[in-house]
Design a protein that fits this description.
Layout (H helix, E strand, L loop, with lengths): L6 E4 L9 H16 L3 E4 L13 H12 L22 H13 L3 E4 L3 H13 L15 H9 L5 E4 L6 E6 L3 E6 L7 E3 L7 H11 L4 E5 L6 H11 L5 E5 L2 E2 L15 H6 L4 H9 L14 H7 L10 E2 L2 H13 L3 H13 L10 H11 L6 H6 L13 H7 L4 H13 L6 H15 L3 H13 L7 H8 L1 H15 L5
Parallel strand pairs: 1-2, 8-9, 10-11
Antiparallel strand pairs: 3-4, 4-7, 5-6
The structure holds glutamic acid.
Glutamic acid binds next to helix 6.
Length: 488
């Protein structure tokens, strides 16, 4: 018998931003679905009304879209098993909860919060793990009916067997087992009538025909509860794959304290989607060799759950920065042109216009020197505007009492150029240095300061050729008049 087509889901709770861990879960599900020609579902788990954040769903969807992760079924994309938002499925959970009650696999609990608090305190004092003491599991059917009839607030709890071992297989962790005695009689329906995560998640995974549950390790301890539910409902279990934890470099759980955790923050800082996706893909998965740079298409071809490791994956910001550079530099000049135009539109130079050919030549000399798009405009500001000031340190070191005279000489040489390309600027500078009797370096530093205002950057002759003869001369003259008064 052929196995059913793969159906996987990403099931975030809309409690705010998309966490990088959530992006990884979404990505692995997406890659697995694409790799197997399966279906990738987005399901919104919004049954915890207290934690619901307005606008979080829209933000999630747009962030996933930004990352290039498209869902096949989900809010607004019906595949016949919707709705895909849990708060729109309450009736479904209610019916399933009733069937669990009817079969004796769940029971109503009428304990007040005061009693539960008292119980917890006692367990604490005895150093026992917090666990419901099953007080209401012993109520007779008549007692239960009477309490319900009296309108006593209640929750529905899962009846966890005593002294059993709950086993399941996990693709990443192999065989996993839990003692049922360590498992709480989980609340399935809360007093507000909403289901908890556990009930809603299992019911939906079944009704949405999910074949593989791929999620973070933090859900591993919930899985035995889910296994019980599958058994009580008489449903076939999906395949489970629990992804390793994400860790800070000091191996503590990834936290906001040690850096950004929201995808939006990386986006705002101009990390490329390709870089973030590549980075997140390698948090737990590896291709089996030492390749590190992957585009989405390659990830789809290569990804497999079998190559996801168990041990925690370190979130290394330096590596993300490196991947960003690699992805940025691997873009074609044309792609970078469009991106640079966007960057300029949001920069102090937005009122100016630059011909494409000009921008392309800036790209050619700057592409190996940038880590982010903004670096084109920040590090290469002098391509877009004459320097408004000059690096003090460099003025002190390089602008001597002879500089003005040397630069005058250079201007005369440059003004004779008929083909002002890099090689021509170079020979002109050499000629000038020779007749002044100074080393080329003296003029190179002087002219770099004059035209760019800064010490680093691409080759000086490239810069001069891009700026052109007239602009170069104008800038040298401006430097002569502005820097002269401070000369030694
Ligand atoms: N709603 C859960 C979350 O926020 C889903 C966990 C799961 O995938 O089962 O991550």
């Amino acid at each position: 018998m052929s196995s059913p087509a793969v159906r996987v889901r990403f099931a975030p709770s809309p409690t705010g931003f998309l966490h990088v861990g959530g992006l990884r879960t979404a990505l692995y599900n997406y890659l697995f679905a694409r790799r197997t020609n399966g279906v990738f579902i987005l399901r919104i788990e919004d049954t915890d009304r207290a934690r619901y954040v307005e606008g979080a769903v829209e933000n999630l969807v747009s962030t996933l879209r930004w990352a290039g992760i498209d869902f096949d079924e989900g809010p607004g994309k019906d595949g016949g098993v919707g709705p895909y938002v849990q708060s729109e499925r309450l009736e479904i959970y209610r019916k399933h909860a009733e069937s669990l009650f009817a079969s004796g696999n769940a029971y109503y609990c009428f304990c007040t919060s005061v009693r539960l608090e008292e119980m917890r305190k006692q367990q604490d004092a005895l150093r026992l793990p917090p666990k419901y003491d099953r007080h209401c599991a012993k109520l007779t059917p008549d007692e239960v009916s009477a309490l319900i009839a009296a309108g006593t607030p209640r929750v529905l709890r899962l009846r966890v067997p005593v002294g059993a071992t709950i086993r399941f297989h996990d693709v990443i962790r192999d065989d996993v087992e839990f003692s049922s005695d360590a498992i709480d009689d989980q609340v399935l329906i809360k007093s507000d009538g909403y289901p908890t995560y556990h009930l809603a998640n299992v019911v939906d995974d079944h009704l949405m025909k999910v074949t593989h549950v791929i999620r973070g390790e933090e859900w591993l301890s919930s899985t035995p509860k889910h296994i019980l539910l599958y058994g009580y409902f008489g449903w076939e279990k999906p395949v489970f794959a629990h992804l390793p934890l994400l860790l800070n470099p000091d191996r503590s759980k990834l936290s906001k304290r040690q850096g950004d955790v929201a995808v939006e923050e990386y986006r705002a800082k101009q990390y490329l989607r390709e870089a973030l996706v590549n980075f997140v893909a390698l948090l737990g998965w590896n291709p089996g060799d030492d390749r590190e740079i992957f585009q989405m298409e390659e990830l789809i071809k290569e990804f497999s759950l079998e190559r996801v490791g168990k041990s925690g994956a370190i979130f290394n910001q330096t590596k993300l920065g490196w991947l960003n550079e690699q992805h940025l530099r691997s873009k074609s000049d044309r792609e970078l042109l469009g991106m640079l135009q966007c960057e300029l539109a949001g920069s102090p130079f937005k009122e100016k216009t630059f011909p494409d050919a000009y921008l392309l030549s800036v790209i050619t000399v700057m592409r190996e020197r940038v880590s982010f798009m903004r670096d084109f405009v920040e590090k290469g500001a002098y391509f877009f505007e004459a320097p408004a000031s000059y690096e003090e340190e460099m003025v002190r070191k390089r602008w001597t009492s002879e500089s003005a005279g040397q630069m005058e000489h250079l201007v005369r040489e440059f003004s004779l150029l008929t083909v002002p390309g890099p090689a021509e600027f170079e020979s002109a500078l050499h000629r000038s240095a020779q007749s002044l009797g100074v080393g080329n370096g003296v003029l190179i530093h002087g002219v770099r300061l004059a035209v760019s205002g800064v010490s680093g950057g691409p080759g000086i002759y490239e810069i001069l050729a891009i700026l052109g003869k007239d602009e170069t001369i104008t800038r040298i003259r401006a430097a002569i008049s502005r820097l002269a008064p401070t000369a030694r």
